[in-house]
Amino acid sequence: MADLATxxxxxxxxxxxxxxxxxACDACVLAAPDHFVMDEDTGHAFVGxxxxxxxxxxxxxxxxxxxxxxxxGDDGE
Length: 77
Known about the structure:
- The protein is α+β, with helices and mostly antiparallel strands.
- The protein is about 25% helix and about 15% strand.
- The chain has one domain: Alpha-Beta Plaits (2-Layer Sandwich), CATH 3.30.70.
- It has 2 helices and 4 strands, in the order βαββαβ.
- The strands form 2 sheets. The protein has a two-stranded antiparallel sheet. A two-stranded antiparallel sheet has the order 2-3.
- It is globular, with a radius of gyration of 11 Å.
C-alpha cells in the first residue's frame, strides 16, 4: 500500500500519488500515459495530471492495480 508520507513532491495535488517505493517499471505510464510521468533523471514515476472523467479514473485505477510494488495511492490530498 502506498504511503502518503513518502509521496514524491513532483506529484500534482489530488487523490492519486506515487510514493518513494516506485521502481520505475513504467507499468503506470503504460496504463495511464496522460496521468503518470516517468522522471528518467531520478528514476521514478509521479502523477502529472489528476483524472477527472470516469474513463480517466478507470485508467488510473488500472495503473494502481498494475504497480508491482504498490507505490500508487488513491487517498492523496
